Amino acid sequence: GGTTGGESVKGRTKGGERKTGDAASPETKPETEAESLEAKAKPEDRWHSAQSLNASLGSTLSRVELMVASGSDWVWARRLMASLFWLSWISLVSGALLVIVRSPECNPPPGSTGGTTGIKHQLHHIKMLHMRAIIIGPIHQYKPDDRNKTNLKSIDMIYGNIQNFRYLIKSANTRGIIFFLLFVGDNIHNVFLQFGNPYKGHIVSLVSENLGKLIALIMFTLPGTPIIYYGDEIGLEDYQVITTLPTLVTSQLGFFKKELESLKYGSFRKVLNETTYFAYTRQWNAHGILAVLNFGDTIHVDFTASGLPLTSLLILSSSLGLQCQIVNMKNLAIPSLEAYMLKYYVLD
After folding, report:
1. With left for phi above 0 and alpha for psi between -120 and 50, is residue 298 left, alpha or beta?
2. pTM of structure
3. Which residues of the chain form CATH 3.20.20.80?
4. CATH fold of the domain at 116-259
5. Where in the sequence does UniProt note compositional bias of the Basic and acidic residues kind (predicted)?
6. pLDDT per residue as tens digits for the range 79-99
7. What phi and psi, each to the nearest 5 degrees, are found at residue 281?
């Protein structure tokens, strides 16, 4: 149409009203993001999505809030969280199944009911536990009521036979495992008579009381494990019991053997070896023990000439028991039939 008053008519609205200008009026502009989303989606789709979300949340939300919650960003967030949940659950189940499959069998192999054969089948499992030694026994043949049936060269049929035992030892050695046979000395006194018996062989019955103390000191200070027949530690004689000082000396020697590293791990060095007296050292790092045993008359010895320090600590005397006395090693006097244990330190 024509123009009136210099104004152009852009067109008419559906209701017959005129719209002028290129921009829409402020009243028709969407006010919120929810209204913008609502304007873009189809009405029926937006309504069904909002109703489904409202039912899943179990709460009553406004139509605008439901439109925002059903947006594409929230939908992807919910899908991502659901995916992570199921992935975590599947990973846990898979890990549990893997542990069950990789675990060793609990049931023993068929045919292994114990004895040497049963141990042989378990060597692989024992090696996996990083064990390096096995103690078994006693497995030798014996009868508690018949001492003549004891045979240390054969194996009781309950545990197998000698061939199975040898095969067990060979299989263990290939895996670096050592076997120790536990020995219980019941009803075998006819085999080991050299250890003594209740009727003869006690130290106090063989030598004098003072020499018995010297022998006890030698056994507890030399390298190795001291072995004595029961009764010798209390001065037991053949056929009778007497109360003597070896009781105290033996208990004190046992204490030093347990506590002093020099007596447990120290190196052995012979200092003096004469006809009537004997001296040696046990040294570990800077700590040392000097044992002096005099089987003859009273003597005076210069131990500094053998490389020992000028002074030492006397900790035990065979006749006086425990001592704590600093002595001069330049001219040390040892009485007759006496044994000394002295402690010294080596200074760099």
Report:
1. beta
2. 0.41
3. 116-259
4. TIM Barrel (3.20.20)
5. 28-48
6. 889 999 999 999 999 999 998
7. -125, 150
